[in-house]
Amino acid sequence: MELTFTQEEESFRDEVRTWVQQNLPTSIAYKVHNALTLTRDDMQSWAKILGSKGWLGYGWPKEFGGPGWNAVQRYIFEEVCAQAGSPRIIPFGPVMVAPVIMAFGNRTQQQKFLPGIASGEVWWSQGYSEPGSGSDLASVKTKAERVGDKYLVNGQKTWTTLGQYGDWIFCLVRTSNEGKPQTGISFLLIDMASPGVTVRPIKLIDGDYEVNEVFFDNVEVPVENLVGEENKGWTYAKFLLAHERTGIADVSRTKRELERLRRILLAEGLLSDSRWRDEFVKLHADVVALEMLVLRVLAAEKSGKQPLEIAALLKIKGSEIQQKYSELMYLAGGPYSMVLQREAMEAGWQGWVAGANYHAPLAPTYLNFRKTTIYGGSNEVQRNIVSQTVLS
Amino acid sequence: MDFEFSEEQLQLVDSVNRWVEKTYTPQVRKTILEQGGFSKNRYQQMADLGLTGLLLPESVGGLGMSSIEAMVVMEQLGRGLVLEPLASSWLVGCLLERSADLSHWGEKLASGHAIGGVAFQETRHTLSACQTQAKLIDGRYYIEGKKCLVESAEHAHILLVSALLGSEVRIFVVETSQTGLNFKHFQTIDGGRASDVHFSSVLATPLAISADFAFDLAQSLALAWLCAQAVGILDKIFQITTEYLNTRKQFGVNLASFQALRHRVADMKLQLELARSMSYYASLSLLPWRTLSASELKNLGLVTSQAKYQLGQAMRYIGQQSIQMHGGIGMTDEYILGQYFKRITQMEILWGDSFYHLDKLSSHLEDLHYVGS
User: Fold this and answer.
1) Is any Cβ of chain B less than 8 angstroms from the Cβ of A203?
2) 10 Å Cβ neighbour count for A286?
């Protein structure tokens, strides 16, 4: 048993911190620290900066051009980035589809797709959910019909995060109706510039357009874009989910956001209010416990011994903590939290501000974070997964 | 002990309900929202229904009804998420009535030709914190200062404003048509409007009632109506959610068949009925509002604080769970649920959030009592 990071890990932390401080644009960090709106350009330019260092695919093995970091190093990297105020890495390319292409794709696909993902040049989207397939993802209906050397794709995906910026999309498509639904699904890579692809942004309750519907109308996809074998797509999707994801706990970002909460409490004169101190202290204690749980998972992974199969627990607690701090921030803002002023969330805003400069994002963030217990496998599904490990 | 509604009250419920269902559909509401969050036309219809004068005495053209009629009206308006600020005008009317000062504005408020607003707030949640000043010059009072987030200011003809006269806080009536008023109008997350108001040498007329009395009465009335409105909203949210669970299928079965969700629905129902109970308690306690003494009003304040706290719990649980149980659809702005959720999110911070009311109850711990004693 050993709590401290090793000497090498601390040196690694210093090295990463130095590089991030020198290369993360201050204008972007400012936006992140103050929960202001990030543009597509903000997100993609950070991806390209990381890509130039070979750190966008920070979980990739050396064999595929990645830094070959172990679980602890990857966590340290995430922590340093979050603390410095970097945007979240858009995971669909570097964290989600790339490992699938590496594990199940052929050489041609790896050579064609991986460089664009690693460099940050190509923006990837995820085509999983459909209007009739939320929790029951295996019931997807978007059809891919083999016609000669192409697939003809027809159907609709929904909740595609930032799909309006996507260059490519990886989709679970139905290639067979025989047998159980899971056995008729294929993993297909689709160019979003293909004729027949239409993206429609969906307005969410926070007033922003974070997700999309993606319609496929007789879209022609070369058969070379099928990853692995036809009708084996569900296995590849499950591989993705089983892939180590302590990131889902979002501890590093939460720690940074708790600082923003503290600043708001201070500005509102609430740090002298024992009720508010209680709330902060309770939340902090929960984050510490989750952080420790994450470290246990990382250490087990690093040692290669018995992995802790508890990703579901991390997702449950991490998402509920995110909802808690977003709610506390909203309430901490007091009456001015009720003003709708998305325009004041733009970094260059010079116009009128209701309340203080921290008020604008409070309600939108609270409203937006209702999603955390729904996406990525709802917390109901996560609890099913957990209970299945211990109950018959 | 009788919690049944009378025939007349049921008729009132019915007429408001039908008006909401027919003329205040989600589509209509969306249009009103996009056009500024207030429809003169709809407000006039509410006046024609007798709603603007519901509580005012018949001598000024009102209906002279009780806090129970007010409660059921607010519930029905809550179901439709009606944007027009009826409660603000009611509040002004009630304070003027207790001040025996209805001669000038009573009729206009009752007929809906005048809209009123209450401008007491300067800092978070504490009404008595007052830096706005009133000066007596040549027999007339002038107001100088700023009030925050006044709910109906954009369309109000009169505002009740708290201001320091010397060392004593007094309540003043201010006509908004004067030049010394400067408004900053904001859209609020529920789609309505609120305004910061600056006063610069604004002519004002003092009310007879003390500021303390006005704050206590305003807060209790406003809280009772807020709770009633919330019950209407939560009723509707509960209905929408159970309908969804009964129709939406995943894994080949209705969501309603999952025990985890069934239990949660039971918990939502429990919260809803506790909320309804406290709304009844608050409005019943307010039946004698026209004659309550200052100390009785203080006691009543504990009841309405408990009601606001309980409603806070219910709004939070029912609201958050309703979105959760809808999955992704619940996150969209197009689906009606989001509009209800945003309103109750805002209502948590109106007239004191749950923490504020818990603090108030805590500091009066020895004075707490039960319904029966």
Assistant:
1) yes
2) 16
- The CA distance from B61 to B53, in Å, is 7
Question: Cα distance from B225 to chain A (closest Cα, Å)?
Answer: 19
Class of domain B116-210: mainly beta
- Evaluate if pTM is beyond 0.95: yes
| Residue tagged active-site, from A244, A291, A327, A346 | A244
| CATH fold of the domain at B213-372 | Butyryl-CoA Dehydrogenase, subunit A; domain 3 (1.20.140)
pLDDT digits (tens, 9 = 90+) for A184-198: 999 999 999 999 999
Interface membership of A351 toward B (CB under 8 Å)? no
* CATH architecture label of B7-111: Orthogonal Bundle (1.10)
Q: How far A159 CA lies from chain B's nearest CA (Å)?
A: 7
Q: With an 8 Å Cβ cutoff, are A203 and B332 in contact?
A: yes
Would A124-231 and A250-389 be classified into the same CATH topology?
A: no
Contact A335 B332 (CB under 8 A): no
Tell me chain A's radius of gyration from C-alpha atoms: 22
Q: Where in chain B is the domain with CATH 2.40.110.10?
A: 116-210
Residues from chain B that touch A334, judged by Cβ atoms under 8 A, are 124-125, 349, 353
DSSP labels for A101-165?
HHHHS-HHHHHHHHHHHHHT-S-EEEE--BTTBSS-GGG---EEEEETTEEEEEEEEEEEETGGG
Residue of chain B whose Cα is closest to the Cα of A160: B328
The string of pLDDT tens digits covering residues B320-364 is: 999 999 999 999 999 999 999 999 999 999 999 999 999 999 999
Which part of chain B has CATH 1.10.540.10?
7-111
Distance (Å, rounded) from C-alpha A124 to C-alpha A194? 14
A204 to chain B, minimum CA–CA distance in Å? 4
The structural domains of chain A, with segments of one domain joined by +, span 7-89, 124-231, 250-389
Asked if residue B160 lies in contact with residue B117, where contact means CB atoms within 8 angstroms, the answer is yes
Other C-beta atoms lying within 10 Å of the C-beta of residue A208:
17
Fold of A250-389: Butyryl-CoA Dehydrogenase, subunit A; domain 3 (1.20.140)
Q: Is A340 in CB contact (< 8 Å) with chain B? A: yes
> Does B345 contact A370 at a Cβ distance shorter than 8 Å?
no
Shortest CB distance from A373 goes to which of B324, B333, B355?
A: B324
Read off the pLDDT of residues A252-294 as tens digits, 9 standing for 90 and up: 999 999 999 999 999 999 999 999 999 999 999 999 999 999 9
A210 is catalytic: no
Of B186, B331, B338, the CB nearest to A339: B186
Q: What is the CA radius of gyration of chain B?
A: 21
Enter the CATH code of domain A124-231: 2.40.110.10
